[in-house]
Amino acid sequence: MKAVQFSRWMAQLSSLNPEQRDQLRSKLLPAARHWQDAIKAPSHCPHCQSRELRPWGSSGDLPRYRCKVCGKTSNALTGTPMARLRKRHLWQDYADALTQSLSVRKAAVHCGVSKNTAFLWRHRFLSRIADHQAQHASGIVEADETFFLESFKGQRELPRPPRRRGGSAKRRGLSAEQIPVLVVRDRSGQQAEFKLEKLDAQHIGERLRPLIDADAILCTDSAGVYAHFAKVEGITHRPINPSQNRRVDGAFHIQNVNAYDSRLKSWMIPFHGVATKYLTNYLGWRRLLERYKTQLNPLICLKEALGYRDMQQLTQT
């Protein structure tokens, strides 16, 4: 609603009868408390991890607790990226902006805050969301890499000459300017992505080893790093070689990760380049949208931002 329309609407409030005011109050109060409903009471002390907590008053509309072991006080947000973040009544509006994939400026208008605040909130919200990904992959597991152009967007000083027109590397093909991202997905929808320092056997192994079950079947392209990993770990490997017009071998293919790579790249286009230091946050953001699909709403998004991973149980993944 535009400011002029809102002013007219506010001017008419005095003409409401008592019954109409009660109806309006019943609609507004639940919405005003949604950010509080999303916050759970802490189960342990964020300072010493003890579970010996007792009520210790309140501050800023949040109950505080005192630890019997270390004596320190805290609330449900202490030690989280959302701690000391102000304007809590707008958190759900900003979560709604994330569900719509709004740009920083559009999110600022949507919530009535400055663009600097909208940018700060984006990465505060995404910090915990970025950690929410699959811890195990089983069955037929697809893995493939995609690349993002290294970006120092937002930095005052660059370690290289600036790209006057941006958007393309100086050299064609793979180079140090391309940041590799490993995408892993099994057929049940469990998915994880990793920003790699380098696309080699060591870094691939460090990411895949704790993720893929020993009895899984790994489907990849014909890159040697995957064959090396599978041989060392004793995992069944089914390579697919698209250059030989062989993209599917029965149930074995990497079509799912390739389709996801395409959706990810298309989704990032409106952001006009993502700073490499924030790339992990954007990967987590896209996973959130993929995980919940049409079930995603601002309250779920807010709970994910607060670190409540049990929200994933609402969907298959």
UniProtKB/TrEMBL annotation:
Residues 154-173 are annotated as: Disordered. This is ISXO2-like transposase domain-containing protein. Signal peptide: none annotated. SMART domains: DDE_Tnp_IS1595 (SM01126). Residues 161-173 have a biased composition (Basic residues). PANTHER family: INSERTION ELEMENT IS1 1 PROTEIN INSB-RELATED (PTHR33293:SF1). It comes from the Bacteria. Residues 136-291 form the ISXO2-like transposase domain. It comes from Ectopseudomonas oleovorans (strain CECT 5344) (Pseudomonas pseudoalcaligenes).
